Amino acid sequence: MFETPRKSNNVRGVWSESQEELHEMQPVSAVDTSSRAKKKKKKKKPQPGGKRSVSAPQLSTEALPETVSSESLQGECTLNNNDEPIVRGIFQIGKRSYDVVLTVSRVTWTPIQPETPTGDASSQRKEAFVELKDVFAVKVKRRRTVGQQSGGTLLGITLFHCKRKGAKLKDHETHLNNLSVDHCEIWFKHLKALLSGFQNRPKSLKVFVNPTSHKKEALRVYMDEVAPLFKLADIEADLTITERKGHVLSVLKECELDIYDGVVCVGGDGTVAEVAHGLLLRAQMDAGRDTDSIFTPVQAALPLGIIPAGSTDIVACSVHGIRHPVTAALHIIMGHRQPVDACSFSSLGRLLRFGFSAMFGFGGRTLAYAERHRWMPPSQRREMALIKTLANLKPEDCELSFLPLKPGTDGAQEQTKTRSRKDVRDSEGGSWQTTQGLFLNISIMAIPCLCSMAPRGLAPNTRLNNGSMALIMAGNTSRSDFVKHLKRYNSVNNQFSFSFVETHTVKAVKLRPRTQGCWADEVSEDNEESDSKSAPIISSDGSYPWNIDGDLLEVPSELYIRVHPELLTLFGENLEEAEESPVKCSCI
Ligand SMILES: Nc1ncnc2c1ncn2[C@@H]1O[C@H](COP(=O)(O)OP(=O)(O)OP(=O)(O)O)[C@@H](O)[C@H]1O
Fold this sequence. Notes:
- The protein is α+β, with helices and mostly antiparallel strands.
- The protein has 13 helices and 23 strands.
- The chain is 22% helix and 31% strand.
- The strands form four sheets. Strands 13, 14, 15, 16, 17, 18, 19, 20, 21, 22 and 23 form an eleven-stranded antiparallel sheet that branches. The protein has a four-stranded antiparallel sheet with strand order 1-6-7-8.
């Protein structure tokens, strides 16, 4: 029976169609995109490779098996030239018959039209095609009675391919109908052989789903929107539903990674951070790196796919330009890869974790407040945290040192204000600049950090893999000016054009808070509100809250942040701007 995992109750009358391998009789779960496929527009394209004079009366599918033999349909296998037909034949697509040609790069179909009485070839031969690089599965289509598990009448073959609309990828089906088994077998074999040539496409994946992310929808998102596509693409997915914080880390430390072609996480930014950290930590363990010293990290062994199911999904948005699970799944299936820079965060010479972004001051305090109120619904918790932290807005007294990227490489956007600083030369030849003072917020970001609240990114001046980090320092100012600065993230105006904001393109940052005990004092203010089960352990020893990729990290002393170019590969593509319409935060 034709199973539609997204709409599993979709029974289409007495007869239904199944997609399966030609000689394997187990039915597979196909993705129901039929309603969307109907709306498909065919693209006009010039005819490839020479003239074709197919001018025959329109053929019905029923007539094809007898009239179209495999000989007349079979082309020579000529894989040298992209435009050279490998196989050519007649299929019914929709209600019309088409002359269909397979080359190494595409499947092209042209409607078969009767000759005009004057013998002219019709001028309206609209050609359509699908590039093989966009095809992720080919299946045999059969008609079966309800309940029939195998066999059934062969109807043709179906191509599953992805279509792009802006940053969004969507799955589509093209049904090539022909009742001839020989004919379909030839096409099926050729298509399978060509698709197996895409070596970048994963065959086996380790998948982590965080069932607690955001609105607890990650498992549903995976089961309904992603798993059916993986199955269609013949990808074996080894699923772990995480049971606690740290679960991913313990699995990644121990498991055999060689058997996988990639790791996938389904959840929010905290889940992404844990998986990225786990993958990078495992790579250091395998390479024998001592992470309790200043070391040069090795790259992660496997690419990471991110299926967004959180509330902000900053990393997914930065790499896909959109929060759309199907787009993310199709990037994984098609094997699109994007190297990204990552940071290491260390304190007192010991590695604390790997990640992409850090916020200290306002960003750290807001997250700490939200974490202590986990019992609240997510959006309410975030708004409340923002309001409370703004109401208690306090500058942090810090000593900040940074190692700028070499002059001339990417410093054009920098905005340096009047803060005094001293320069110290680094052993690598760079020049550390040190400044002291009061800061409301300090952000250090290796990726643009796109999200719906900041469509151009929290750090629009950096790129996914430009080998640098954006350092954004918001100095002490009035609350109203700081709110104006925050609001600009959501607008077209430059959020950095304030006298109290400084930006730098850097390779490394050291930050040492100089205020004693302020964080512990603040925690005690609302201790009575916190849920003892879910509240993080907040020490009163003067440690400071950092927001590292949306995860709360408490650091008692100096934090040392270094960027490592292209340390991790993500499944996806480099996009400069989020596609989603900006979301206004109602509380500011
Ligand atoms: N079963 C579980 N129970 C509790 N926490 C878990 C579980 N599985 C994973 N976690 C942890 O939950 C944390 C938060 O995950 P995640 O970021 O995906 O959700 P979120 O915070 O709701 O989403 P967002 O960051 O987008 O708001 C992660 O640090 C992860 O380690």
